[in-house]
Amino acid sequence: MDLMRSEPMQLVQLIVPIESAHLTLSYVGELGLLQFKDLNIDKSPFQRTYAYQIKRCGEMARKLRFFRDQMWKAGIVPSVMPLMDEVNFDDLEAKLGELEGELIEVNANSEKLQRTYNELLEYKLVLQKAGEFFYSAQSDATAQQREIEARSVGDESIDRPLLLEQEISTDLSKQIKLGFVSGLVPKEKSMAFERILFRATRGNMFLKQSLVEDPVTDPVSGEKGLKNVFVVFYSGERAKTKILKICEAFGANRYPFTEDVSKQRQMIEEVEGRISELKTTIDIGVLHRDKLLKNIGYQYESWNHLVKKEKSVYHTLNMLSLDVSKKCLVAEGWSPKFAASQIQDALERAALDSNSQVGSIFQVLQSKERFGNFLRRFKRLWMHMGEMWLVYLVAKYQEANPAVYTIVTFPFLFAVMFGDWGHGICLLLATMYFIIRERKLSSQKLGDITEMTFGGRYVIMMMALFSIYTGLVYNEFFSVPFELFGQSAYACRDPSCSRRTYPFGVDPVWHGSRSELPFLNSLKMKMSILLGVAQMNLGILMSFFNGLFFRNGLNIWYQFIPQLIFLNSLFGYLSLLIVVKWCTGSKADLYHVMIYMFLSPTDDLGENQLFPGQKTFRFFFTHLVLLLLALVSVPWMLLPKPFLMKRQHEAASSQSYALVHSDEVDSIEIEADHDSHGHEEFEFSEVFVHQLIHTIEFPCHSELSSVFYEKVLLLAWGYNNIIILIIGGIVFICATIGVLLVMETLSAFLHALRLHWVEFQNKFYEGDGYKFAPILICNSRRRRLTPRPRLM
């Protein structure tokens, strides 16, 4: 079947000895061709046989994620080393536990040392800044004392303070001693800190602050920020208690300080010495941690692959049924028919490598269940296009695959709406950047929009190539025409000149003329009708092939044939008139022809006649016959099929206890599936009207491009001013990228997607299946596992 339909599937049963079960599923998983059924669906995850092993795998995966986060913080990228010949899962579990314990201990010691280091740095700043406060205060006090003594020696003056003698004679033992608190507070909290202190102490305090120029790392939070060194002077224990609580509330770190200058110098020297020692110790610890993480990084990928593989194997083992004798496991699943020999080879290899005395049994079961849909994938373009259609619905088993056709029709219909070979080249260059650097970008974390664009890079490349082609047909390069394929047919105005049709695409003389908009709109509208009718005819034709493949006569006789007649008797006839008008150069009004075909099918067409036979045989072979065919096709689609399906279902229900042939069951299921969609065809004309409405979008892209070119770039060029020209060029580039290359690309993409999902696939694609999901273990790191002990 390859691309057109799903591969033929079969239900198989495996009977595997317990001693070789693990290795068997490992080898089968490397094939990726067997989807297992859950035979223990009535059991919870904790009641299954291998719940403990899955828990172990989950714990090991957690440790590996911890190692990955630590490597990411340290800037270490995991590398791949040659894999070992033998890998023991139990030894790996013990090793991961030891490495985690060692790394946690190293991190804890490093955090303690770093916190102490940051505290010493803050303490050093406090000693320096607070020492400056006290030195400045002592200097001022000494200068003031000298001034007072100098005044007391001189004669008494009227300016002399009255209480000076009393103040000097006061007993020093009765003077009040002030206490102080020193530390650092965040700069953004310093003003609020000062106000709260003032209010709490009712002004009975003195605060001195100094900004630290460089950012300081907080020992508690580890965040860098600007801080102020403060010293708060107070009187009394109550004031001290309030100040300490306020410091704690504002996150201010307090440090002890002495008034003795000699002790201050000694403390600064001690702090600097400890800082130097801690710096050396921290550097050694960082080197040890980096060395440990590098050793982990060398084997991280292989360990991670092994843990994922083991978890996948045990998860699948939990889906198998344990035999009563507890000597074997029974598995059921779906696989393609061509994979039977490969699965049997894997079973034989697993039995041989595990030294099992009994081999596994492989047998095919007869089943009426619906199988998963399995399509082989070859190229990346095919894979991305197929994934885009799986977003809509998954095809039913062996239903026709729409991606075979849409791989060409989708980018082509996009290009019909987007057509501009200048914009197409820009789109192609952006896509080629993603394709050339796909290996590097695939390993990086991209944004949501960038990741979406990167995922569809090959589809966008096809869209860009078709846009270049349709742009050459429209003769538009950023809305500017070029004579790429020769001179215009109207270059010579002399009647004696021989005029030849422009070789390829639209003649450039149409651009800028008065009739440009009517001509190009008429061309694109007529072309969109032809493409729409052709696309829907292809969808109806696909329904015929589906009915023929599934041997469903009801869909062929009462769905395919009336749909085909209804579509082509009206819109197929319109498409024929468009082609005839283009070939003959007739001036007939097709709107008039189609309107009077319904209102007065027997009237003379007059000047709207397109070909001579149309007038002579009008009643028999044109309007009247086509209208009758369209009229007959409606009840043809509506009435017979529901009654015939009802009769078949009644016959099937009366034989519910009899053996029914599989082909008949499939036919009944298919007809039942079609029953819910049968009445949608009665809105066929409305669907086509919607398609005609969306054809209005086809000329929009070129109109926007023309507006930006004429109203921005040419207008700026006319001012003969270099500044205005630069501004106009920037505006034109931004408008081209933002509106035409982004918004219009998205708009054309969505319209092309709707045309395929609604107008094309809706005619034949049921999409009620499910995707084939086999157990898949990457075999790019294939290794030979050591024989494991018995699992039970």
From TrEMBL:
<dbReference type="GO" id="GO:0051117">
    <property type="term" value="F:ATPase binding"/>
</dbReference>
<comment type="similarity">
    <text>Belongs to the V-ATPase 116 kDa subunit family.</text>
</comment>
<feature type="transmembrane region" description="Helical">
    <location>
        <begin position="619"/>
        <end position="639"/>
    </location>
</feature>
<keyword id="KW-0406">Ion transport</keyword>
<dbReference type="Pfam" id="PF01496">
    <property type="entry name" value="V_ATPase_I"/>
</dbReference>
<feature type="transmembrane region" description="Helical">
    <location>
        <begin position="457"/>
        <end position="474"/>
    </location>
</feature>
<feature type="transmembrane region" description="Helical">
    <location>
        <begin position="527"/>
        <end position="548"/>
    </location>
</feature>
<dbReference type="InterPro" id="IPR002490">
    <property type="entry name" value="V-ATPase_116kDa_su"/>
</dbReference>
<dbReference type="InterPro" id="IPR026028">
    <property type="entry name" value="V-type_ATPase_116kDa_su_euka"/>
</dbReference>
<dbReference type="GO" id="GO:0000220">
    <property type="term" value="C:vacuolar proton-transporting V-type ATPase, V0 domain"/>
</dbReference>
<keyword id="KW-1133">Transmembrane helix</keyword>
<keyword id="KW-0375">Hydrogen ion transport</keyword>
<feature type="transmembrane region" description="Helical">
    <location>
        <begin position="403"/>
        <end position="436"/>
    </location>
</feature>
<feature type="coiled-coil region">
    <location>
        <begin position="89"/>
        <end position="116"/>
    </location>
</feature>
<dbReference type="GO" id="GO:0046961">
    <property type="term" value="F:proton-transporting ATPase activity, rotational mechanism"/>
</dbReference>
<feature type="transmembrane region" description="Helical">
    <location>
        <begin position="560"/>
        <end position="580"/>
    </location>
</feature>
<keyword id="KW-0175">Coiled coil</keyword>
<protein>
    <recommendedName>
        <fullName>V-type proton ATPase subunit a</fullName>
    </recommendedName>
</protein>
<comment type="function">
    <text>Essential component of the vacuolar proton pump (V-ATPase), a multimeric enzyme that catalyzes the translocation of protons across the membranes. Required for assembly and activity of the V-ATPase.</text>
</comment>
<keyword id="KW-0472">Membrane</keyword>
<feature type="transmembrane region" description="Helical">
    <location>
        <begin position="722"/>
        <end position="743"/>
    </location>
</feature>
<keyword id="KW-0813">Transport</keyword>
<keyword id="KW-0812">Transmembrane</keyword>
<dbReference type="GO" id="GO:0007035">
    <property type="term" value="P:vacuolar acidification"/>
</dbReference>
